[in-house]
Amino acid sequence: MEENVQELGENVNRLQEYLLGQLPAIGQFCLKVVLAIVVFYIGRKFINWVLKVMRRSLERANIDKGVIQFASSLSKFLLYALLIFNISTSFGVKESSVAALLGTAGVTIGLALQGGLANLAGGMMLLLFKPFQVGDYIIQNQQAGCEGTVFKIEICYTTLLSVDNKHIVIPNGTLSNSTIINVTARDQRKLEIKVGISYESDIQKAKDILETLLREDPDTKDDKDMVVFVDELAPSSVIMGFRVWLPTESYWPAKWRLNQRIKEEFDAQGIIIPYNQLDVHIKKD
């Protein structure tokens, strides 16, 4: 029993001696941890300042807003990677070891995140060819397509704002590989409205009403290329229509306003808008 107690005391003494011998190393390590935290905090503040200065400089140079957002997002990723690399080397990790580790990790992550790399490449393609810009209203013409105003373009994703103010986040790889309809790319859009009238109604009178409405409307009155036409002799109605150019931003208000005015004027002038109907004739032998 005395031998066991004596052996335990010797082990405790060795542990105390070891810890006392390692105190300088432990203190140095704790100091490095504290310094790393301080450096990361200062580095983060510095990165935010650099990004702010870069965005202001690009805005003053009238660079496209989507390019600014993409460049800011990419620069933020690279600067943080550089900051973490410098902090790692301060702990005694060799640069060659870090480079080898990053290379191996890059290959592994690249294989695991092929979709992310495709999105990154897609973002670069979007900024290079510029099928749309921030503020444009686009329609992604696919089976599960979506539409909205482009809010921001980042490294891997593009955010749209829908008409009811929902955020729609689309991978850049998907956007770059799909058909995109840019509604607001041009200053003017052509509006086409068709309406059916009964076969008993006066076609020329209906055309005169439509022409009058177009000449009186504030958004269409200046268009010299407007045209009113008979589009089709349908089974239950004569399809009348018109085409007119108007400012892009006035497209929907003008369409809604003209639809209402057509119904009101046709009712007032005795032009009948029929509904689908089927006439059945019964013959008796």
Q: Can you tag this structure with a few keywords?
A:
285 residues, alpha+beta, five-stranded antiparallel beta sheet, three-stranded antiparallel beta sheet, 8 strands, elongated
Based on DSSP secondary structure assignment, what is the total number of beta strands? Answer: 8
Q: How far apart lie the N and C ends?
A: 128 Å
Question: Which outline best applies?
Answer: elongated
Class derived from helix and strand content: alpha+beta
The average pLDDT value, as a whole number, equals 80
> Any idea what the radius of gyration is?
35 Å
Q: Major sheet: order of its strands?
A: 4-3-2-1-5
Q: Sheet with the most strands?
A: 5 strands, antiparallel
Which bin fits the share of residues in helices? Answer: 40-55%
Number of helices: 7
- Order of helix and strand elements from N to C terminus: HHHHEEEEHEEHEEH
Taking pLDDT < 50 over at least 5 consecutive residues as the criterion, the unreliable ranges are none
SS strand fraction: 15-25%
Task: Walk me through this protein's architecture.
It is a single chain. This protein has 285 residues and is α+β, with helices and mostly antiparallel strands. It contains 7 helices and 8 strands. It has helices spanning 2-60, 65-90, 95-112, 114-129, 172-176, 203-216, 251-268; strands at residues 137-141, 147-153, 157-161, 167-171, 179-182, 188-197, 227-233, 238-247. The chain has a 5-stranded antiparallel β-sheet with strand order 4-3-2-1-5. A hairpin with a 5-residue loop joins strand 1 (137-141) and strand 2. Helix 1 runs antiparallel to helix 2 (65-90) and helix 6 (203-216) packs across helix 7. The termini are far apart. The model has no long low-confidence stretch (mean pLDDT 80).
